[in-house]
């Protein structure tokens, strides 16, 4: 996941941030309309090796615990990111869609189109 794609959405991003209790490190954190959003770039180690790809139990538990700490969690599966076309705006459009699906259209509606 490229931070330029998030910056293209006009987001202030913070890389490798810890939760307030310092138990979990998150890939990227941003705040959208007062909602703390954790964006995770998930590589192959987060999924079963066989089809269909399912998140492993430890990753699912981690996401649950991060949500209980007040974050919305957006996961970026590696195979979806790698399949994006090479246009500069493709990553930003994809991430915008993931964020909107987590926050809901009312909360994230102000996110600009790249």
Summarize the structure.
This protein is α+β, with helices and mostly antiparallel strands and 114 residues long.
Sum up the structure in keywords.
single chain, 35% helix, 4-stranded mixed β-sheet, alpha+beta, globular, 114 residues, Endonuclease, Chain A
What are the SSEs and their pairings?
Elements: H1 3-7, E1 14-18, E2 25-32, E3 35-42, H2 57-68, E4 71-77, H3 78-82, H4 90-103, H5 105-108
Parallel strand pairs: 3-4
Antiparallel strand pairs: 1-2, 2-3
Structural class: alpha+beta
CATH topology: Endonuclease, Chain A
User: What is the count of β-strands?
Assistant: 4
Task: Please indicate the percent range of residues in DSSP E strands (runs of 2 or more).
Answer: 15-25%
| Helix-strand topology string | HEEEHEHHH
CA distance, first residue to last residue: 16 Å
Q: Which runs of at least 5 residues are low in confidence (pLDDT < 50)?
A: none
Residues in helix, % = 25-40%
Radius of gyration: 14 Å
Write a structural description.
It is a single chain. With 114 residues, the chain is an alpha+beta fold. The chain has one domain (3-102): VSR Endonuclease (Endonuclease, Chain A, 3-Layer(aba) Sandwich), CATH 3.40.960.10. The chain is built from five helices and four strands. The protein has a four-stranded mixed sheet with strand order 1-2-3-4. The protein starts with a helix and ends in a 6-residue tail after the last helix. The relative contact order is 0.21.
